[in-house]
């Protein structure tokens, strides 16, 4: 669980540079990063809104359990 300081720093980075905040949280070349980059190019405010959503609400760890593993992940 991230601390309050980490969350505040991620939110501040997401407001200043939305794709960078999403990249630090989820990594580069992810769906979240590509959507945030596209929205930031189309308009700065939609990029900020999506970056805040991706940082605060989206939890990537829940998608990588055994039953909901993506199709591209290598199997056991």
Summed up, what is this model?
This protein is mostly helical and 76 residues long. The protein contains 4 helices and no strands.
Task: Outline the structure in words.
The chain has 76 residues and is mainly alpha-helical. It has one domain. The protein has helices at 4-16, 18-26, 31-42, 44-56. The longest helix is centred in the first third of the chain and has 13 residues, at 4-16. It starts with a helix and ends in a 20-residue tail after the last helix.
Distance between the amino and carboxyl termini: 28 Å
Oligomer: single chain
Shape: globular
How large a portion of the residues is in β-strands, by DSSP E?
under 5%
Integer-rounded radius of gyration: 13 Å
Order of helices and strands: HHHH
How many individual helices? 4
β-strand number: 0
The helix/strand class is mainly alpha
Please estimate the helix content: 55-70%
Overall pLDDT score? 80
Described by strand count, sense and barrel closure, the largest sheet is: none
Q: Compute the number of structural domains.
A: 1
The low-confidence runs, each spanning 5 or more residues with pLDDT under 50, are: none
Family: Belongs to the UPF0057 (PMP3) family.
InterPro entries: PMP3
Main location: membrane
Subcellular location: Membrane
């Amino acid at each position: 669980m991230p601390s309050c300081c980490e969350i505040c720093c991620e939110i501040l980075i997401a407001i200043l540079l939305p794709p960078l905040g999403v990249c630090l949280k989820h990594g580069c070349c992810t769906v979240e990063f590509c959507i945030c980059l596209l929205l930031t190019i189309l308009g700065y405010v939609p990029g900020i809104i999506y970056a805040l959503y991706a940082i605060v609400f989206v939890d990537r760890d829940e998608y990588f359990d055994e039953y909901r593993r993506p199709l591209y992940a290598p199997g056991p």
